[in-house]
């Protein structure tokens, strides 16, 4: 009888501990395209976030899950939201999408119309919020780093970023405004008006400085 | 006591009758783009199907529901499949999509990549079949009616039609092969190699003959 | 003898007068696309220039010839430069091109690559200068009048305008910087960030205010 | 006196010889894009033509000049026709262009509109014929070797080939109908409906068999 009680007590404690531990861990899915897919590599922005958390001694409080697939646009995220986000039961999802929706217009004629972009983006946000997941929105950073507004897709990136900001405001989501931050950084650090090499390797994908900038910005928003 | 029995009997009969009636009605959702949106108009292919059923005296056996929205591509169907198909609880769904997935590449730079097209198409078919709905697939008919393979999108329409035929074969869906039928009709009836005016008004949307051709073909597949 | 002398004297005078008259008339070809084609219509910028010259009482000192054809890009100008400019033997040619080179990328997939644009533009300038014709260059004004850099083609228009400014500087041509002037005007007069209606009717073609702005700017450069 | 006569006689003989030699040499400029640029490399179609002439012992009767530049479209040929063709004073020019006019629509949004293609093509033909140069026209062979008409650009390549055939007929130019020949060859030799590897390395540029096919066809038309 005593043994059994002890066992039950131990089990209860374990469950309690597990529950507390579980409560304390903030689970974050980073949901995006090739930039996020690269984010989990050594030097990637998700890897850098984990390293920063480790340094601060709070790495056990956060579980960061990269869910990026190269070439993804907003509707590709919608197609795989159940499996790659909802089933993970995260506390937070970071939506980092939009570059391919604009870029593939010119590279493959398969970009996303602005009205469709907004419709799918809203659908994503609502699905996540309905499931009790906090949504953080990111604006697409750059396709080309020239600072004089002469990158071919600048107009569209600004337009799609405006849409994201508006949706985020309407649905009360914080915004990691990468488009704004990248331009500000380049205005200071790209005096020769280069197309790449400041925050990107190839006008789109992040170099080490770019990964660091994104990691710092997202970490501030997640871990506070 | 007798009265109560009679009442119960009558109710039972009524329910039986309703059940039988319900069983006998075949509910069909026609799921597509502007061609299907126009299909419910006077002279449209869905209207023509209804008229043909009425002539045969079996119009009560079929309920045809048009669910076409202009500009829709395969992923737009995916976004609205719950509301516009599943909630209707149809017996059959006819998927008639693909023209905009190809056409919008050149008109808006927002077409659908072949691999994405196939992925979303398969996702649609599986969702419907999982819900016990029989799926009929249509190939996209034409963007231009020239018969010498010189319409700009001929290559892509053939490619996407091949994908649809393959998916249909794999998932055991009958195919209304509009692409094949339209070319066959034009080879006989378009001796001047015109771009439009034989089965379409504007290279894409159906004229009266085109609507009749689609109505006849689909009716044969649904009502047998 | 006297008669003959008189005749000769009269002829000489006539020729002198013709020569003087000819010397005094400045012949200007305005070489461009649909914007320039519309420029010769009532209310068009070329018509407005003529009206302004008339008001100043110097309309006989300038001959303005509109040579705009809808849909023209830089290489279309090159194809017709002999007939439409050189054969006119003008003193000045105003090159007003670039909108379609950018715009037709998205509307027809038939825009002009930046390097080709520059190559043909330089070829035009050299042909004209070799033939003793003064060249005035215009930057392409707008495709969309939003002032927050979110018009789809803003990046490309800025890029192509930079190329024109550089070519003009290299070949010593004055620049009518319409791109800069239109943005400046919109920043003051387009508080609602509208796409059209301030200087254009449809995001591209000039309304009355737009025609006036272009007329004023070009007149200042030609008639000084 | 005798010495002088001898000298004059020798000079006269030399000039006669040069004149005869010159008369007998047929000078051919092959005017095109990257396919023709590669044609002068070892294994290229122009190199193969030279080797075949050498084998037949008539290599001195023909001078083949490759004038291909990667990425060229019909208007790029027009820009450099003076320097690269007229100044060479050839007897024959082979115009081999059209692939990029179609292909760059999808790869760079900078293809060539059909009506512009025809206009520049006609301008080329007329310039050459006016200068007494015989023109041989080629249709663009392939962008993708699938034989079931499902290569994305098949429709456009057929359309532009039709235009070339019509211009050639109107201006009495023989046609090297590569489009037709390549399809015929693939129908026999591409049973797996592959996209490349039969006559091309990469769907567009010629492999050894493709270079041989073009060399054989053009040689028959030039050396007869």
Automatic annotation (TrEMBL), chains A, B, C, D:
UniProt key word Signal: yes
Domain SGNH hydrolase-type esterase: 30-213
Residue intervals passing through the bilayer: none
Entry keyword Zinc: no
Residues of the signal peptide: 1-19
Xref: Gene3D superfamilies: SGNH hydrolase
GO molecular function terms attached to this record: phosphatidylcholine lysophospholipase activity
GO process terms (BP): lipid metabolic process
Keywords: Signal
Name listed for the protein in its UniProt record: Lipolytic protein G-D-S-L family
Organism from which the protein derives: Haliscomenobacter hydrossis (strain ATCC 27775 / DSM 1100 / LMG 10767 / O)
Lineage: Bacteria, Pseudomonadati, Bacteroidota, Saprospiria, Saprospirales
